[in-house]
Amino acid sequence: MSSASAAGTRSRSRTSAPVIQAAPSTPPAPSTSPTLGWVALAIVPQVSDNMRMGDQRQAPEADRVLVAQLTGEARRHAQWRPLTTEEEAIALAELRALAAGRADLLAEVAGILEGTSEGELDEPLARSAARLCREAGADPAAIPAWAEEGRRRSANARRPPFSGSGTPRARYGQP
Predict the structure, then answer these.
(1) Can you give the residue ranges of every domain in the chain?
(2) How far is CA 35 from CA 18, 24, 41, 58, 131, in A?
(3) Which of 40, 41, 89, 169 might form a disulfide with 23, Cβ 3.0–4.6 angstroms?
């Protein structure tokens, strides 16, 4: 092997990306080898369009799944007509069983349903679903804040996508 190819191999091994592994409980002892040794990873939550900038704490995945399930269950039982006593009893029992005492998540579902449906054609149906969540044990103090969040999400969904500049003509150099 020539000295040029050996030098090339050494320089590639020094500049190659290190293998990233989960950090052990204690870092390894310092090494005299030229490799990069121990690397710690930091997990940073991303801020998305449905999360406020100041609220970078994401709900655990299980809570998000449960909110989706509660929303589906409430919408499934909601009707355009008033529910019969038997239908309402079944709906409330299923929502209570699914929520397992999580009044905060029932309040989230009720508030989001109310906030996002204001002025929409399905508002009566969404209000029926929200009423079921309220009667199933939603925290009444938390519902107004979630309704406001629903209104904010609805307003953001109606906004046009960001185009980069004020007018289409400005992007192409036309006056």
Answers:
(1) 61-158
(2) 8, 18, 18, 36, 62
(3) 40
